[in-house]
Structure formats: structure tokens, C-alpha cells
Amino acid sequence: MDDDVIVRFEHVKQARMCSKGTRAFFISHNLDFQSFLKHGIKASELAKLNDAMANQAIEVARHGK
Q: Are 6 and 62 in contact (CB under 8 A)?
């Protein structure tokens, strides 16, 4: 199922987002940034946030650039 794709930091970089902003995003949404760096996060968890930047990273994880 597409929603179960794992979004990793590499996808965030491919979406041209910075690490500092990504870290701030995770903190502001009470998400574990260190866990994200090590393991990634399920797209379905990010999709729940209904955030344009999160959705962009999900699309990269699903389909590439």
C-alpha cells in the first residue's frame, strides 16, 4: 500500500528541503527527529499532518524526483 512507504531523510533532501527546517518541522509536530534520521517515518504518519512540505516529501518517496 502506497501509504506505508517509508519517507527517509534522503527524500527530504531530494525535495530540496534543508535539515534545519526539517528538524524544526519535526519538533513543532512533536515527532522524533532522531528516530526519523535513523529509521524514516511512514508516509501515512506524515500525511495525517496535512502539510504541503510533508506531502512533497511523501511524493518523492513514492515516485522519486
A: no
Contact (Cβ atoms closer than 8 angstroms) between residue 49 and residue 41: no
28 close to 20: Cβ distance less than 8 angstroms: no
Query: Hey, what's the torsion of the CAs at 16, 58, 62, 4, to 10 degrees?
Result: 150
- Reported pTM: 0.88
Question: What would the grid cell of residue 58 be?
Answer: 511523501
Instruction: Kindly state the cell numbers that stand for 38.
Output: 535513523
pLDDT on residue 38:
97
Task: Indicate whether 49 pLDDT > 60.
Answer: yes
What's the pLDDT at 4?
A: 85
